[in-house]
Amino acid sequence: MTLLAGKVDEAQRRSAFRRWRANPSALLGTVIVGVIALTALVSLVWTPYGPLAIDTNHTLSAMSASHWLGTDEYGRDTLSRLMASCKITMYVGGLSVLFATAIGLPLGIWSAWNKGWVSQLILRAADVLYGFPALLAASLFAAAFGASTNTVVLAIGIAYIPVFVRVTRSAALVILNAEYVLAALAYGRRPFAIVRKHVLPGIGSIIVAQMSLLFSIAVLAESGLDYLGLGTAPPNSSWGTMLQSAQNYLSSDALLCLWPSLAIVLCVLGFSLLSEGVSELRDERGGR
Amino acid sequence: MLKSRKTVIVAVALALTTFGFVGSGLASASAPTTLVIGSQVAPPGLDPTSNASAAIDEVFDYNVYQHLYQLNPKGQLVPTLATSYTLSPNGLTYTFKLRSGVQFSNGDAFTAKNVVFSLNRAADPANGYPYQSLVSDVASVTAPSDTTAVVTLTHADSQFLYNLAAYSNGVILDPNAVSTIATQPVGTGPFTFVSMVPNYDIVLAGSPTFWGTPPAMRQIIWQYFANPTTMDSALQSGQIQVIDNLNSPSNVSAFKGNSAFQIIAGPTNGKIDLTVNNSKGPLKSLKVRQALYYALNRPAILKTVGAGYGTVISSDQVPGDPWYTPSVNSTYAYNPTKAKALLKAAGYPHGFTLTLSVPPYSYATEAAPLVQAMFAAVGVKVIIKPISWPLWISNVFLGSQNYQLTIIDQVEARDIPEYGDCSYYFNYAGCKAVNQMINAANQATSDAAMVTGYKAVVKKINADVANFWLYNPDQLTVAAKDVIGLPSGGLTESFNMQYLARSGTLSPSLIAQGFLN
Amino acid sequence: MSKGRGWFVVRRLGVVLSSLVAASMLVFVFLNVLPGSPAEVILGTQSTPASVAALTIQLGLNKPIWRQYLDWMGGLVNGNFGVSYISGQSIGHEIHQALLVTGPLVLLAMLIGLVIGVPLGLTGALYKGRWLGSVVGGLSQIGIAIPSVVAGILLTVGLSIKLHLFPSSGFPGWQDPWGSLRALVLPAFALGVVEGAILARYIRAAVMEQLRSDYLRTARSKGLRRSQALRRHGLRVAAIPVVTVLGLEIASLIVGAIVVENIFALPGVGMMLLNAVNNRDLIVVQDIAMVVVTAVLLINTLVDLSYQWLDPRLRGRR
Q1: Which CATH class, in words, describes the domain spanning B1-61+189-268+475-517?
Q2: Is the confidence metric ipTM above 0.85 for this complex?
């Protein structure tokens, strides 16, 4: 029995992997996200130069063997700063999405389950929260606590809560109204068990796709907030702050602007492809 | 119809330019009479008497509002609404002879009563003038006649007239217009206020009631750019003609060597300081402060942050001060070895950690990583903590003064008396002694004695390393080649626009006062 | 049925109103516990404890906090936005001026987004699996990934500094309608391109879903061509997710507008908000927050109401 089950699992896994490999969005997304995550990990222990190491004798130098992507106005190595920024981006994106999921997911399921005033209250609260664009929150947090990477995480995370509540709720509603779940309810299964057995596995891929999508939007939002000086503060590097200071040298040193721009585009692209890939895979499986 | 309207416009433009031509004797008939000046910091309001913002003074002081005496771009006193003054031998009574035939832009006449009203308004703490403390020694103001005003002080103050000319507490107001001062400024100056779009622009027009020669520019627009790169491209594409000051001097590279633009590097009163809280931890020790001052490569900071435009200073002084002592600036030259030795002697062979609170100004955010690297080289770790401006005021400058280091441009002219203020955020231990020295210097009846007194203060605070003075930045004005009459530097809070023109030449007397041809 | 719908509208408006009251309290409380007072900012480096205390009383900031809240709300209800602590100007007038920049900017950006997104999305769906569909899909993926900062910088460098086609910055004001429109073109493009890419993606997905749906299959079995069937039956229903996305995107457009206003030096709501936060101009921040929240809530409500109109199956349901 168990042997047979193991074989089925094995087969399922292999076919999942095959479908994954066959889906261009999923594959490309995974590769890009993997590269960025790996770069972030490497930057924890090694970068070509210190990302904050100033060398006033070699400011704004061009690409060379010693500085692959050149240096900025303080003579800091651009490649090292790009790598260190990867880490910040993964931190902001990851933490803000996790924060929003951790709060939004349970609230969403609860509001789908409960049809009473509590559910209404959650939805209305989500609406009010939704009315607060992340930038408004970020500028208020920056004013209160000083601009930092963590204020960005908080601002983006809070802004995403209502999105997760809504997405989770609508996905959970579909499952809760499905006949087999209604049957399980009538059979007297406990709510928690139904959520664990049916709802969570049912909405899992939607949530993963949504998390990946919001991660990509978080990268965009973070770059905008950093650019406006509401996020990661100098001298620490992030792609947004790099872009902001490189902009001053646009006429003389356009490449300095190019690298952080490319990094942002690539990162957003990676996560949004991954999100699309997950959705497509789900559709395929659902369609089978 | 259209044609006739066009003709009218041309006629008006001609009339205006002719006016300018007659008035200044320099503009040719075809020269444009409108100028757009770009600037980075938008004024938060229109009233220089209720807000300390330098951006308000820059536009409205001298240009819309005038003083009895004003400063020319070289920092010298020039009679303006007064024609002369006499000072009583005991140094307590100033008698001003006032200019006659002066009108406010609303048509009200200017008399000695306006002086009484304006100075009393400034001196009353209830009115909340930002520079009220500078006129707190006014005992009385009287108007014996329409053209005579008498100001009596409680004690002799050699800096009184300078302070009245340099700061917005000296503006002469019309009591009938004060109730609308926040929205409709009325002054005696060469320009009147037309309109403002908050955070975007301010439009001024030549005042029809101005008593002097009408300015050649009949309309001046101040346009504000939060983004310096946008401002640079606006100048390059001809949308604006002048940038008052490049906040990031490194941007000068975009204009250097381009014959279409002129770059004016002029002196300012600013002192960019790595400000020290003398009462915090290791910073209490003189040896530690000396060590850290030796650890700072200030010429390198000036080169990177100020693009080399400025003067390295080692005390609270700028070249324009009467008591400027250049020899002091050669002290504490960069010497990391000596710094390490001093730290060891002070009992910190392994260094310590300091927190640097950085306000959101480009010179501060740009200097902070340099300071961090230079201190790290002698074993002192610096944690950079960005802080918003309101928090800087309430936590660093006032209140708990809970900071160790911060970076700030002390922009006020001749502000060395701050080192004699024991509640000031330096928490300098020598404040009482300095206060006595400054009081003595202010009571001095001869200029020479006053200067000697102040020079002693310059040397004392340098010997005590009461602060880490970095450099005195230049004002970097960039303008289209054809603009003349620009002030040669930033020694005044006002950006004096009276003599701006787009053609012609300036009179030698104006050039001697520091306006550029 | 129509009575039911009217009742629905009234109920939704009630919800919006109560949400607004909640939002106003949230904003007010948060701003008033922020450290740093307007008095200190006004006095700057000239502040002393005594002068700050005097100015605090003059500004009325010493009143109890509930009193300040009621004063503010009382003003808002009567359409009076108050007077700025910092500039002494009427805030209502300032916000009105700023909205005349940001409003058209956002609308223009949305229009550009629709013009780009709808054809791209439809092409992507109808040509799925063929090279055209893949190209369109790839384009919209890349479009989404371009931050408005980068788009703004590229557009200024290309079209304004190099080619002088559009002004690089500034806004002449609506007394010069042609000049104002020209000034908004580049900023709107910087916002709209990304918007178009997002819309294209949603439209593509929605239309593909419709193509798979049973009743379109039925319609096709009646002999209609795929595009005909889509036009007659599917588009209206496919519009639902599109309208939803448009509504959702309003908030992100407002955020994007702030970045773009910064790049192009436009005197819009975003710049006003950032400056007011930096100056601790509390009432201005509160007012702008309320304007933004009101706009977003109203748009969400309109989106919900439009479902009823777009999808007959939902009529009479809530």
Answers
A1: alpha beta
A2: no
